[in-house]
Amino acid sequence: MGLNRDGVNTQDIFEAQDMGYSGGHKGIEMGGGGPTFLTTKIDFVVNWARKNSLWPMPFGTACCAIEMMASAASNFDLARFGMERMSFSPRQADVLICAGRVPYKLAPVLRRTYDQMMQPKWVVSMGACASSGGVFDTYSMVQGIDTIVPVDVYVPGCPPRPEGLIYGLMMIQEKIREETLADHSELRSEDPDRAGLPEAGDEDISALSGPFGNSTQQEYLTGLAQTKRPDRPKDLLP
Amino acid sequence: MTHVSSIEPDIGSEHMLINIGPQHPATHGVLRLVCELDGETVIKVMPDIGYLHSSFEKLGEYRTWNQIVPLTDRMDYLAPLIYNCAYVMAVEKLMGLEVTERCKIVRVICMEMDRIFSHLLWLGTTAIDVGAFTPFLYAFQERERIYSLHESFTGARITTSATRVGGMMADLPDGWIESLKDFLDTVTKTLDEIDSLLTTNAIYLGRTIDVGVISGEDAINHGLTGPNLRASGVPYDLRKDHPYYDYETYDFEVPIGENGDCYDRYLVRMEEMRQSIKILHQAIDRLPEGPINVDDPRVSLPSKTDCMNDMESMIHHFKLITEGISVPAGDCYFAVEGSKGELGMYVVSDGGYKPVRWRIRPPSFVNLSVISKLAEGHLVSDLIMINASLDIVLGEIDR
Amino acid sequence: MAENNTIDALKNVFSESILHHEINAGDQCVVFVSPSQNTEILSWLREEPTQSYDLLVDVTAVDFGEGLPLQVVYQLWSLKHKNSLRIKCELEIENLTIKTVTSIWKSADWLEREVYDLFGVEFIGHPDLRRILMPKTYDEGHPLRKDFPLRGRFSRAEQTRRALSQDYHDYYTEEMLEIGGEPAVSSPKYDTDKGNAS
């Protein structure tokens, strides 16, 4: 699809460049001029191409990985959405699907895989364990991969059905549709010094993985400070 | 010729360290294999596991006896119902509880169905490892039928949690047996199709015959069980040797191999699926009517009418719901023939509402420990085939 | 009745070392033996033709907490006689050492490593006794002991920081590094003091 340049004079193109598009590599401040005809059309074309050729990087660990395989097999067929090729190499992948529980021993591997992926990249956290630790509120499990890598879409379920995963990936497509190239230098910039580091800070990790539910109340021996019943707001107490 | 000898030390063998996994499509999970290579020959394999250690056994000590059931199927997500059944069978054995006749047969159906379920996934992924994609799609089509059967019975596709101490969560729904019969018809045809694709395929034969050979004696010493042991010619099958749920009255064969190589392991699993189909046909025929849950005050809730009219039943209901069942003090090891080998559940109770210790005897953990012996001297590509032929599931290795 | 034969035979051969026995869960035979004699008893059980417990099914341990002795459990199966037998050794919680049985069964290798990792039982003479499930640098102790809290000893933030602050020495054993040599490019090291990469 070629762009018809006849109707656009050169001055407009320069203006568009000043206003934002391609500002990233020219070092110009991103403009407050808003989208122009040209940038919106380019955004549309680029996003259309991107969202229909997402290559997933399957980071499958446990039960969810089996459902991910089921969604790639014939009954559900992820290929219908342009995800024909499961890219087992992170360098050629667009979407990291973290399917299954992630112990602390695996956390650096997940982070390394994410760091190795090229921009633009998105992350799907598939299943309860990846999203929040699930039933495994234990010594060895990461309480949600959003403490390790940034997550775009959480798919709930234990495990989610293949329809759920496909819906999550369509939400990624929806997210791509609304992106503009003008925002990219801000949205997609990465600090190389952050490679290999947890996404969340200490306070965020404590807040995200604080004790909740009844798992920590069910201790076999009492008197352990770490597994005391958490304080709840007064109005919830009987 | 002097030139050659002077060059030789430079091109001589410098061993290389190759790291496969933990994020690798051919390791069937998050297994990590660190290999020492001489050229393309494997000198030594050093497996590194624990990348999926989710502390099931510790968590089990904080859960009541029935709350552990949902943990069991997250351990081996390839054959969840076998794990559900094995766990409650161990607890029932410790309690001295005899389940109803219908429950026994339903559990036999569940376990044999999931043996096919697990072997089909093994078949598909192993075929991918040698470059054949079609068997994967064929196998998953049959697996989708089992998914539907799981779903209509238990409400979930993989994490079934179908058993309870003393019975099942529910009786089989109407028409379920007919769907199972339909599945048995289609899976027989699919197995024949996959058979014709792989069993005499020259590439497949070349990749599997005489690869990863282990003798029967070594296999016993290394603790192999299940199809891996039987492929080495040792006819050890708990369904025959230590029968539970009247397996001795079913008419089926235990296939055994001769050479103990990857091809024999493939043949044994293919034949096992056919034998499971045979058992399933017999179990369907003898499925009796009657209650599925045992009528024992220790585990079964009183009926709703009794609860409303009778104070003792009300108290009993309340105690069972709030405290859970209590299991007498003691310990019990109960093993069933899982899809991957001897699946043992070891429970220790102090008479309370939670176990003191819940231990799973993991078949694939022990089976995997033999990989460094099997792969020595083979090529790297054979290592992938050997790993596939052992049929491991990381959720249960790492627990 | 074969189980009882085993107990009688064991008592005849190792009179002092067989402490007591019990029948659990209806028909399961459990024999408590002296920990100092475990290899002798187990290797006799394997070699003696009338017993021939040739399959070591499982090695595990049970911690009851409250200072009670920790039990090391060996689950055996005889392929020839189709019998099972459970041998238990009780170890004082202050002194968790026992002889390894890897010389009798190869399958004990990983199973004993797991017991060492999760319970801290030291198997004397084990060829490769190191952690198997938990990371090499795990500092919080032995998780399956009763005094170990379910959520671990450190805070979640500390656990996350420790998990992500490993370098290649923590991923490879000394043996592997000897084969492979030092890596050309080292991974970014997480500086725990500053909280950033150096």
Note down, in words, how this protein is organized:
- The complex is a heterotrimer of chains A (238), B (399) and C (198).
- With 238 residues, chain A is α/β, with parallel strands linked by helices.
- The termini of chain A are far apart.
- Chain A has a four-stranded parallel β-sheet with strand order 1-2-3-4.
- In chain A, helix 3 (37-51) packs antiparallel against helix 7 and helix 4 (63-72) packs across helix 7 (162-177).
- Chain A has helices spanning 10-19, 23-26, 37-51, 63-72, 107-116, 128-132, 162-177, 184-187, 202-208, and strands at residues 56-60, 95-99, 122-126, 153-155.
- Residues 1-5, 16-30 and 213-238 of chain A have low confidence and may be disordered.
- Among the domains of chain A are: 10-50, no CATH class; 55-178, Rossmann fold, CATH 3.40.50.12280.
- In chain B, helix 5 runs antiparallel to helix 6.
- Chain B has 399 residues and is mainly alpha-helical.
- Chain B is globular.
- Chain B contains 18 helices and eight strands.
- In chain B, strands 1-2-3 form a three-stranded antiparallel β-sheet. Chain B has a three-stranded antiparallel β-sheet with strand order 6-7-8. A two-stranded antiparallel ribbon of chain B has the order 4-5.
- The model of chain B is unreliable at 1-8 (pLDDT under 50).
- Chain C is α/β, with parallel strands linked by helices and 198 residues long.
- A five-stranded mixed β-sheet of chain C has the order 1-2-5-4-3.
- In chain C, strand 4 and strand 5 form a beta hairpin.
- The longest helix of chain C is centred in the N-terminal third of the chain and has 12 residues, at 2-13.
- Chain C is globular and about 60 Å long.
- Mean pLDDT of chain C is 84; it is low at 190-198.
- The chains are: A alpha/beta (238), B mainly alpha (399), C alpha/beta (198).
- Chains in contact: A-B, A-C, B-C.
- The interface between A and B is large, with 36 and 38 residues.
